[in-house]
Each structure stands twice: as C-alpha cells, then as structure tokens.
Design brief:
9 strands, Pantoate--beta-alanine Ligase, Chain: A,domain 2, 3-stranded antiparallel beta sheet, alpha/beta, Rossmann fold
Length: about 260
C-alpha cells in the first residue's frame, strides 16, 4: 500500500491506472467496520482502491468538534493495508486549502435542511472537498455509507448537476449487535451514555416521526430533529445528542412508499 501526501503524488501514482477501474472511499479516518464494508465493496468491483484520510475542517462549524474528532493515522493505515487498499491519499489541510483558497460548491436545496439547518455551511464543506477529491483521484466509482443519507443525496445531486463521469455506490448502514450504527463519534460515549444512545435505533424502528420523538424524549435524549426526508429512497432521519456527543442515523422507508 502506498501513502500519498500531495495532489501531485496521488495523481502520479494513478496515472498508469487510467485504463482500469478506480474506486474511491472518502473517509475522515478513525476507521471502523462501516468503512471496511465500503473498502470491501470497492475491492470487489474495482481494480485499484483509493482511500482518502482527511479530517475536513471546512465541514465543521464548531472548532471544539473539529479539535475533538478522533485521529489515529497509524492505526488507520494499518487497518487500510489489512483491508486491501492500494493507495491512501492523506493530505494536510494546507494541501487541500492552500493560501488564497476561495472557491466553494453548494448544493442549495438538499443541503439546506436537516443537517444543513443545524450545522450551517456543513454541506458546502462536504460538497467542496468531495468535488476536489473527485477531480484529484478521478475515480470511476465512489463508495459512501447510507448512515449519512443526506450526504449521499447531496453528492448524488452534485454528480448529476455537474455531469461528473463517475458512479456513486451507497452501502447499507453497518450496526453493532445492539443496533447502534457504527460511527467514529461512538468512541466519545461513556458506557452509560451508550446505553442511552440505543434509544435512537429503537425510535427509528417505529418508522413514525411522532412516535420516535416521544420515545427519544421519554428516554432523556436531546433531539435536534427527527423527520421524514424525501431522498431516494425516502428515510426517517434523526440527529440526537447524548451527553456531549451528537449522533445521526436513519432508516429507509422505501418499502412503505
């Protein structure tokens, strides 16, 4: 596995690969089994698998959240190598956002609701960094998890609107046996908070926003939002706060539509 730190290096490494299928798995590190499901899907479908490791400052509105985001590059690189990744792109913030950077991409309608309402500028940061990754790596297929259904919807819209020559694969949410969706933020939960967080998958299983909100509030979980989002497929999406940790999750409503 080769690790590239600059745009020039990753482009050079990929130059011989333009006649074969390149898959990209964008991540912010703190790799877990959810990320590995994406790598496995990419490995099964693509000749070359690229994984990006970049904690994107542009999608954080809270400096404390950015500074507290888990980082362990040594572990991430070992996990990526074991999973069969061919190339890791691990740029610095200054490599991705050099002095004078002032170009931003925004998916206006889809990105303005739910997370966009509670985290202003979040999806502008997501759309911009992903478009930059897409133009740097030039993948044939990109792989994302359905756990962040709004992110998937935003990026599908971006790919369609800008006529990008790539496909997006959305893989099912990976959950622990207790039902909690895997997330890098789960590391922040204490043992008692993790028990409390289990109210989130139970609430979503009702597939009804009013019943779900009542269940969460009765459990003492703070609710930012829980509502039906008309994505493809439509989902019941929620963001909650357990202690100081913010968690998002969703369930598909496709079989009900």
């Amino acid at each position: 596995m080769r690790v590239c730190r600059t745009i020039t290096d990753i482009r050079t490494a990929l130059e011989p690969c333009r006649d074969i299928t390149v898959g990209l798995v964008p991540t912010m590190g703190a790799l877990h089994a959810g990320h590995l499901s994406l790598v496995a899907a990419a490995r099964a479908e693509c000749s070359v698998v690229v994984l990006s490791l970049f904690v994107n400052p542009a999608q954080f509105s809270d400096p404390g959240d950015l500074n507290g985001y888990p980082r362990d590059e040594k572990s991430d690189l070992a996990i990526a190598a074991e999973a069969g990744v061919d190339l890791v792109f691990a740029p610095s913030a200054s490599e991705m956002y050099p002095p004078g950077f002032q170009t931003w991409v925004e998916v206006t309608e889809i990105g303005a609701r739910l997370e966009g309402e509670h985290r202003p500028g979040h999806f502008r940061g997501v759309a911009t960094v992903c478009l930059k990754l897409f133009t740097i790596v030039r993948p044939d297929i990109v792989f994302f998890g359905q756990k962040d259904a709004q992110q998937v919807a935003v990026l599908r819209r971006l790919i369609a609107d800008l006529a990008l020559d790539l496909e997006l694969r959305a893989l099912p949410t990976v959950r622990d046996p207790d039902g909690l969706a895997l997330s890098s933020r789960n590391e922040r939960l204490s043992s008692s908070e993790r028990v409390l967080a289990l109210a989130l998958p139970r609430a979503l299983a009702t597939r009804d926003p009013e019943r779900a909100r009542a269940l969460l509030e009765s459990a003492g979980v703070g609710v930012d939002y829980i509502e039906i989002a008309p994505f493809d497929p439509p989902v019941l999406a929620a963001a909650v706060r357990v202690g100081t940790t913010r968690l998002i999750d969703n369930v598909s409503l496709e079989e009900d539509s």
